[in-house]
Amino acid sequence: MSSDKVANLFADIPEKLPQELSSLLLEGKNVRIERIVSLGHSSKPGFWYQQNEHEWVVLLTGGALLRWEDGREETLAPGDYVYIPAGEKHRVEGTLAGEHSVWLAIFFTQ
């Protein structure tokens, strides 16, 4: 993406999403920024994310329920954000079925 291009995080979102939509917005040596769009999606049963990168994610629209391997759960509403350290097992238990949940995720290493 060039610095003179204006884009919108809410543009080009399909009405129907058979699977979660992830779009790479920016990538550098130690950072990657993605837009993720969910519509009633969740992690597959028994699947846990366990990434080599740290993740900071903010929910811009919609709603979601996150779960950690240690049993913690967090319900997210628009504007809520969370930091997930590298290696920490987590999953998306669910997102709203009737509304797009738009996330901005920043993955980074130190």
- CATH architecture classification name: Sandwich
User: Mean of the pLDDT scores?
Assistant: 95
Could you give the order of the helices and strands? EEEEEEEE
Largest sheet: 5 strands, antiparallel
**Strand sequence of the main sheet, in spatial order?**
1-2-8-3-6
How many separate domains? 1
Measured as a percent range, the helix fraction is under 10%
Class derived from helix and strand content: mainly beta
Number of helices in the DSSP assignment: 0
CATH superfamily: Jelly Rolls
The first-level CATH class is given as Mainly Beta
CATH topology: Jelly Rolls
Q: What is the general shape?
A: globular
Instruction: Count all strands and give the number.
Output: 8
Which percent band covers the strand fraction?
A: over 45%
Distance between the termini: 23 Å
| Low-confidence parts | none
Rg from C-alpha positions?
14 Å
Structure overview:
The protein is an all-beta fold and 110 residues long. The chain has a single domain (21-108), classed as Jelly Rolls, CATH 2.60.120.10. Helices cover 0% and strands 45% of the residues. It has no helices and eight strands. The protein has strands at 21-27, 31-38, 54-61, 64-68, 73-76, 81-84, 90-95, 101-108. The protein has a five-stranded antiparallel beta sheet with strand order 1-2-8-3-6, with no helix packed on it. Strands 5-4-7 form a three-stranded antiparallel beta sheet, with no helix packed on it. A hairpin with a 3-residue loop joins strand 1 and strand 2 (31-38). It is globular, with a radius of gyration of 14 Å. The mean pLDDT is 95.
